[in-house]
Amino acid sequence: MRYHNITKADMLNGEGLRVVLWVSGCSHECPGCQNALTWNPNEGLPFDEEAIKEIYQELDQDWCDGITLSGGDPLFLGNRETVRNLILNIKEKYPNKTIWCYTGYTYETLVKQALKDSNLNDILNHIDVLLDGPFLMRLADMNKHYVGSSNQRIIDMVKTRKQDEIVLYQDEEVKGFKEVNVCHA
């Protein structure tokens, strides 16, 4: 697997302060994607021990709430084994840190694929939040929290696994939001 960047103390790609791994490789190639540079799985840097060490140094910090996997697509077929290994190691080493994962696949598609893909099955059983679905320019919504188009969902994977049905994630900002009627007279 290759990657483009590791962002530190990120507040835009998940709840709290996070480290973000921007992987290479995406087969969705959504028109209007903000990360088209990451589509080619052969571009970027090799994801090696130094990159893992850099991620762990961030996760070692008390202020770091967890890791977000983005890209590209962390669940691109060529990334799954490495992403699985990283996730399992993080869950073992940092059990109180959360793992968020962006993907252009829908949850339903991933569940079907996981029946034949043990790496994907392990990923889905260990991440905390899944941000699913392709970016669709016609459904672009600048008011959505963490995602770019209204078809994309933020799925609480812990509750989804427990209840065996999709449960959407709600962070403190979303929970505390109240609609306000404004008069424009």
Write the H/E string, N to C.
EEEHEHEHHEEHH
Estimated helix fraction: 25-40%
Low-confidence stretches: 172-185
Approximately how much beta-strand content do the residues carry? Answer: 15-25%
End-to-end separation: 56 Å
**In order across it, which strands form the biggest sheet?**
3-1-2-4-5-6-7
| Average pLDDT | 91
Q: What structural class do helix, strand and pairing data support?
A: alpha/beta
DSSP helical segment count: 6
Number of strands: 7
Give the C-alpha Rg: 16 Å
Quick description:
The protein is an alpha/beta fold. The chain contains six helices and seven strands.
How are the secondary structure elements laid out?
Blueprint: E1 2-10, E2 18-23, E3 45-46, H1 49-59, E4 66-71, H2 80-93, E5 98-102, H3 107-114, H4 118-124, E6 129-132, E7 153-156, H5 157-163, H6 172-175
Parallel strand pairs: 2-4, 4-5, 5-6
Antiparallel strand pairs: 1-2, 1-3, 6-7
Helix pairs in contact: 2-4, 3-4
